[in-house]
Structures are given as C-alpha cells and as structure tokens.
Amino acid sequence: MCGIVGVVNIKRSALSLKECAIRDLHAAMAVQQHRGPDDQGVCSFCFEDAKSHSVSDALDLNHEWSMDGIIGFNRLSIKDLSMAGHQPMTALGGKVILAFNGEIYNDFELRKALETKGYSFKGTSDTEVILNLYLEFGFEKMLNQLNGMFAIVIVDLRLGKVFMARDRFGIKPLYYTFYKGRIAFASEMKSIIQFCDFDRELDMNAFNARLVFSRPSNKVLLSGVEILDPGQAVSISRHGDTRFWHHYDINDYERTDGKYRNIDEVLEEAEDVLSDVTARQMLSDVKVGCQLSGGVDSTLVSYFANKMDGNHLNDGISIIDDAGALGEEFYIDHVGNSLGLDVHKFKMDPDYFLENYQRTIWYNDAPVYTPYFACHLKLAEKAKKHVTVTLSGEGADELAGGYSRFVAGVYQPFVSGIGVHSSKLTSYDSYAEYAVMSDTTLTDLLSTDRQNPDDLIREQVESFNGFSGSNFTKHVKFEMTQRLPEGLLRQDKMSMAHSIENRVPLLDNKFVDFVMQLPEDMLLRFMAPSPLTLSNNPFEWAAGKYFLKELCARKFGYDFAYRKKTIMVLDKRDMLAFSGFSNLFYDLIYPGMKDRGLVDAELVRSWFEALTDVSEKIFYSMWRAMGLEMWCQLFLDSRGCSLS
After folding, report:
1. Are 517 and 255 in contact (CB under 8 A)?
2. Is the pLDDT of residue 297 over 50?
3. Which of 50, 182, 414, 496 could be joined to 157 by an S-S link, Cβ 3.0–4.6 Å?
4. Rounded to whole angstroms, how far apart are CA atoms 482 and 464?
5. Computed from CA positions of residues 369, 374, 375, 379, in that sequence, does the dihedral angle turn out positive or negative?
6. Burial of 50 (0-12, 13-18, 19+ CB in 10 A)
C-alpha cells in the first residue's frame, strides 16, 4: 500500500515553491512514511507550460522555475517490486501524472484488453494499467472498469485538470482541503497539517457528531478538511472549476426473487464467487496471511485462500485474550488445525493499550472509541514479522445483515413506535430512527457549542430514508455507506501504521454484486418462535448472513458456525483504571480538557474517579470526551511528525 500527498494551485497565479514549501512537502511525506517505506518519489508540474519534473526526494526539486503543484508518494511494494512500479508515474512525456494507493484485482484482464488495443507495458504493476486505462478511456470510464480498493489522483496537463477518486466502499482514504487558492490532498490527514500556511481549526459539527455517534460517517474534525465519500470522484480545473460525482451508487441494487430455488443453489454460486474473488486477492509478489479471528467471515476467507492452487494461504495472525477455551482462541485453533495453517497468536494486555493509546489516535487521524483499535495495531505490528499483506473478513456483517440489530429490526415489527434494542423494548418513531440509533450510545456530555443531538440524528435518518428497498435492504445500504467506511479506515490506518496492506475479499465488486441481489430469506433466517425468547441452544436459532453461516457450517460444522458469537474479553474499564492511564488522564487529558473548555472537565473527572460504577452510557460519554481531547492535543496543538 502507499501514501499520496500533494498541493496544487487552482487560482491562476503560480504556486510559489520556495525552500520552506518544499520542506513542508518533505514533512508531509515523512509523517506517512509508514504507508510506503520501500520507495518515494516527487513530481512537480506547471499547467501553463504543460511540463513536469520528477525526482526521488522533495528536497531535490529544482524550484527556480514556475510551478503549479507538486505530488509526493511513499510506496509499499506489493506487485512488481522493481522500479517499473515507481510513482508518481507519468505518460505522454510527463503531461499525465498518476498517484495511486491501493490494489486493482482485475488488472490482468484489463491489461490484456489494453494490449489488444496496442498498449505496451514496462512492468507488471497495476499502476501502469490504470494509467493506460485513463489514456484510452478518460477518467470516468476508467473508474467504471476498476475492481479493487483505491485512492487515485491524476493530473492531466493537457486538460489543465486534477482528477481524484476513491473506491466503491471507502477501503482506501483520500483527504482534501481547498484553502488559499489551492487544493491539498493526502492519504492521511496528518500530512495536510504539515503545510505551514494551512490554518488548523476544530470543526464543531464533527466534534459534536463524535460525541453522539461511535461511527459518525465522514465527519472530519479539522475545519475545511473533507474525505472523499466512498465511490466519489472529483475534477478540479486549474482555474478552480469543480465537479463532484459518484462513480458508484449502492442504491442501484435491487433484490431479485425467484432466481434461486433453495439454499443449495445459493451456496453453489457462493462457492464459485468466493473462490474467484479470494484467488484474485491472493495475487502478490510478497507473502500473504489472514487476520484470523475465529469468526465465520475470516474463517471462510482463510478456507478459500488456503484451498486455491499454487501460492495458497499458510499463515494466520490472531490477537487473543485470557479467555482460553471459553473465547475465540478455541475456534481460531480449530480453523488453524483444520486448514494446516501456521497460526501466530499474540495476547492483548493493558500495558500495550496504554503505551499505544496516543499512537492509535495519531495513526487513526481521529479519536478511538474502544481498545480494539490497539488490538488491530498490535496485530499489524506482529504480522509484519511474518507477512506483508493480510486478508480480513471486514464488511460481511454490514453487507449480509450479520449484526443482531438487523435481526431485531426485521423480526420485531415497529408497531406504535416500539422496536427491539439490545433485547429491551425501546421507543422509536420509525425503522429509520431505530437503524440510526441501534449502534449509538447517546452522550450525556454536550460540548459548549450545545448543538442538539436530535439534529445529528435527523441528518442520518434522512440519509436512511433516501435508500430504496425494504427496511432490511435500506438498513444494509445505510450500514455500507454510513458505518462501514469508519471501520475500513480503522483497518487501513492501523495496518498501514506497520506497513501492512490489508485486503477485504468480501468487498470485492463481484461478491457485493452477488450478495446485494440475493433474496432476503437467504440473509436472514430466524428459527426461534420469538426474538425475545431466544433459546440457549445454538441449533434453534440463527441471526443474519444466513448463507455465509450455512456455508461455514458445511465446512467446519454446525456447532462452529451457529454458535452464539463470543468476543474478545477486554475489560474497557480495567484498561482505563490501569495506573498508567490514570497518570495520563491527570497529567494531560484533564488539564487540557479544562483549558480548552469544550466540555465539562469537572464532570468528566468525577466520572473517571467513579470508573467502576458509572453506567455504560456515561462510560462511553467519558471515553469519547477523552479521545477528543487527546486528538486536539495531537492535531491542533502540535504538528509532531512522529509518536514512535
């Protein structure tokens, strides 16, 4: 995987690239070097003369001549380890410049098609495929042909335009900001604050949203900074004319009834699709492993990656707790033994959480709301000793209705505004409100801005109601667009912190197309007489993602696939009650919160001192407030280049 950073003048007058500005680019590349430690490149360009100049280091730029922009790139070599994959990559004598972060899984087919049109290739990287695809079809038609995870920036000096795009589901990030007659963009937000003329201010709307929601969609805490939506693209002319559009819209899907007669026909096609997508995502010139959690999704990914011919999966990477046979470790071992994997297991503990609390926020570009961020960070750190690419089962729960909130919503009708939430009756005005609130712990702590949380909830309810289909299908589309991207950012940031590329086969275009057209009864099956009276017998009930559980059951046994889900036992309160975290709270977090005056610091302190007794609602209010303060210290008060 890789890191992109750049700045482009879009208001006619040439961008002055004096020595300090070049050093800003150098610093912006340095803070995300973890995304690409293998190689780096820089390309400066001028629209007026339609010329570009490439060097290997920002400090090597010849800045005596007029420039309109510069792009820097840090490369993690995955496909084609040679310099034929060096970026930024140029074509037509430097008139077209490409920076690409990600992987394209249908690049072999695209390459063959381009070769029939007369294109030749210097190497085997998918970057070169994208560049030639753009030359042949233009930006919009190019995007429509890509199957993969990507953030792409193309500068076309012939047209005087900059193009940017993000993949369908937001697997790869791309931040941007318009400021002072220019646009800056980067794979990580921390790179943007390295430009000394960028003014850092807090976005209070985003601040409040992060107090209310655990996963607040695309709310970026730096005022003026945005992140491209999943499936979004933009073109910016050299004079500032801007057009945004979506090259992919999940609302285009409609479920089809009657295509499959029974579950066996669904599973037959599912096996073919999963075999295909997993084989594609195993292609690499470096070693590939799997994030093995012991759950259904990572188990199926591991199964199909392990069963493919040739370069198949041999390594599993797992983070475990002290639960032993009572937790996921038992199932991790079962999968590892069944497939003959070399499973590398590592324990999570309070010491690691404390040592890496600030680091997780720094790498994440946003506050963290559970210690599981540190689990992902440790997994990547340990994985690096064994593999460079990991596969994960991310996305299946959102795509196939795997969370219990899907089942509760569908099987308990919303009569008279009553729905099911956490096995308790709770009042909601609509299914839309239930879907928005079912993954939310409303905070009791409002910022001094006093924005009404109802406004934030209403915004997401309107988003939900904009989708087509049944309540269940709307719920899936809502989760895929509003909640999944935050989880994918966590995967990307924590993995890339240790230069690990994480791939998500269950979000391959082909698999998503397959699942989004399945009849709902292939995703949700409920065998108990009532969702409020679930039996403890796992054979008597099933939650969502039915066809995936059934497929897993036929490979690993019904007691494996249909068990009630166990989770890693990490006592969040113990993590914060740890003496080292108390020092962090009293030395940094509480004083900073008090001076900043955005929340009631004394109230947070009283909650912290009663940590073991406060309600879950108060606990999460406190957790979010502390994370926001720590983020402010790292991103507003300091431009620090590293926390290592």
Report:
1. yes
2. yes
3. 50
4. 9
5. positive
6. middle
Tokens for 452? 């009404």
**Residue 293: helix, strand or coil by DSSP?**
coil
Average pLDDT over residues 559-573: 74
Query: Could you give the CA distance from residue 462 to residue 25 in angstroms, rounded to a whole number?
Result: 40
3-state helix, strand, coil in the chain (%, to 5): 45, 20, 40
Q: How far apart are CA 291 and CA 382, in angstroms?
A: 11
Asked if residue 604 lies in contact with residue 593, where contact means CB atoms within 8 angstroms, the answer is yes
In 286-403, alpha helices (H): 296-307, 329-339, 350-364, 372-383, 396-400
pLDDT digits (tens, 9 = 90+) for 523-544: 988 655 444 444 444 444 556 8
Residue type, 628: L
The number of residues making up the chain comes to: 644
HSE on the CB side for 87, CA within 13 Å? 35
Structural domains in the chain?
2-249 (3.60.20.10), 257-400+478-561 (3.40.50.620), 572-635 (no CATH)
Alpha helices in 517-600 (DSSP H): 546-556, 558-561, 572-577, 579-584, 590-596
CA 59 – CA 297 distance, rounded (Å): 46
Q: What integer is the mean pLDDT of 494-514?
A: 97
CA 202 to chain centre: 22
For 312-333, write each residue's pLDDT tens digit.
899 999 998 766 544 688 899 9
Edge-to-edge order in the sheet of strand 148-156: 89-91, 96-104, 148-156, 161-166, 232-237, 242-246
3-state class of 471 per DSSP?
A: helix
pTM above 0.85, yes or no: yes
Q: Where are the beta strands (DSSP E) in 27-172?
A: 39-46, 51-55, 69-75, 89-91, 96-104, 148-156, 161-166
Which secondary-structure segment (H or E) carries 318? strand 315-320
The pLDDT tens digits for 231-269 are 999 999 999 999 999 999 999 999 988 788 899 999 999
